[in-house]
Specification:
This protein has eight helices and no strands. It is an all-alpha fold. It is globular and about 55 Å long. Helix 1 crosses helix 2 and helix 2 crosses helix 7. The structure holds fe (ii) ion (FE2) (2 copies). One fe (ii) ion binds near residues 32, 64, 129, 153 and 157.
Length: about 260
């Protein structure tokens, strides 16, 4: 039977697939960390109060990168190069979603519009991260090797998502509602396609490493395409709704350390 649980079990059990999985995850988290650190440094004067939260967001993502690298080290593995087709962050940037890295490398302050784009992009990608971590915690939250790490990351991703809701609603109340809805929609529709392509690429690599038979690979690819069809038909709407979180200001304060890693 093909299930998310059995697939991840296989990926975790084999050193080569585990190495690729942790390397892809660590690289994506580290890129997120870099982006947030740059955005924090370039937040416009009028939005200065946001900067510490963006810094914290970046510190969390950097920490996640270190956690995934720590998981590799625990098993005596080195990180491997991330195949281009599996680079979610880079592919989103190539499609013009979020803030261009070229803009972030410059030392010019961002505009309020840029911050709106950053928060909308994060609203969508943090939803994906939170959903994936929820799935991993559901099946592997008690796993002796990865359980603790994924529970910690899951809690952080939930906070990141809550922070995006809160800050975007604040901007919406301040009169940016239409621009936010437009940007969120654009981000979500691009993200679901990138997520499909990355999922296909990751599963293709895993299939080769784990020598999955053709029928299993075909079934998996069909499943990924069916998921995309569902999201394209309306599932994407869950990524653009805004709700005020119960716990406000989840990124107030410094990042919690990850002592075990
Ligand atoms: Fe993360
Ligand atoms: Fe995150």
């Amino acid at each position: 039977m093909l299930s998310a649980r059995s697939l991840f079990q296989e990926i975790i059990d084999n050193d080569d697939s585990y190495q690729l999985f942790c390397s892809i995850a660590a690289s994506g988290e580290a890129q997120g960390g870099w982006e947030n650190a740059r955005i924090a440094a370039l937040v416009p004067e009028s939005m200065r109060d946001l900067a510490p939260k963006v810094t914290r967001h970046g510190a969390d993502e950097d920490k996640h990168g270190r956690i995934f690298n720590g998981l590799l080290k625990k098993r005596g593995l080195e990180p491997v190069a991330v195949p281009p087709g599996t680079d979610y962050t880079m592919l989103l940037e190539q499609r013009g979603i979020g803030l261009a890295h070229e803009k972030l490398r410059r030392d010019q302050p961002l505009t309020e519009e840029d911050v709106l784009v950053y928060l909308s992009h994060s609203r969508v990608t943090e939803q994906r991260a939170a959903d994936q971590m929820d799935m991993l915690v559901k099946y592997f939250g008690d796993h002796p090797e990865v359980g603790k790490a994924i529970r910690q990351i899951c809690g952080d991703e939930d906070n990141h998502l809550a922070y995006c809701h809160e800050e975007l609603l604040r901007l919406a109340y301040a009169g940016h509602g239409r621009a936010i809805q437009r940007t969120l929609r654009e981000c979500a529709l691009a993200e679901i396609a990138v997520y499909r392509d990355v999922s296909l690429a990751v599963m293709d690599h895993m299939g080769r490493i784990l020598r999955w038979p053709g029928a299993k690979r075909t079934a998996l690819a069909l499943g990924i395409r069916a998921m995309y069809a569902y999201e394209r038909a309306g599932g994407w709407r869950r990524m653009v709704q805004l709700r005020m979180p119960e716990r406000r200001d989840p990124l107030g304060g410094p990042a919690e350390p990850a002592p075990a890693y």
